[in-house]
Amino acid sequence: MARLDVLFDGYGGTSVASTVSLVRDGDVVVIVDPGMVPSRAAILDPLAKLGVSPEDVTDIVISHHHPDHTLNIAIFPEVTVHDHWATYRRDQWTSRAAEGTKLSPGITLWETPGHTPQDITTLVETDEGVAALTHLWVYEGSPGNGLDVDPVQVARHRARVLEVATVIVPGHGPAFRIRS
Predict the structure, then answer these.
(1) So where are the chain's domains?
(2) What's the predicted TM-score (pTM) here?
(3) Each residue of 31-51: pLDDT tens digit?
(4) Beta partners for 111?
């Protein structure tokens, strides 16, 4: 099973920061949405407390291409970056659809457009159940996002995610459990 650690709980309002997560599954070490935070220490300090250095990170997943989710990718020097339609490493752009892409046995990408046409969700199989790292929720209880390009798609993809997830790690807030 994969291990999930939320490094930083994002927020919105007069300031904005993305929720940044670490996922480990065997030799795969993934950072999801290393975007805007108050300082790089907000990512690096919790990472160090978990015994992980930036050089240990193998992959970055960005839920979508807004700067608040991508700004700090460069902290991690030798990674493969995953988005909705490709992977990027050094000077190599490898096209592929995100839907069903497995980064490891316990980490899978789903295409979940709605906030933007390019959104993806990272599903993580943990000992506690399946966690969905996603911008389909801005924070717990959020009806949506005033910036969603297609609220109907957001609702449809939320329903799909809720069929498998026990925990939601939203784009701008702390993780929350799904209530049955």
Answers:
(1) 3-177
(2) 0.97
(3) 999 999 999 999 999 999 999
(4) 120
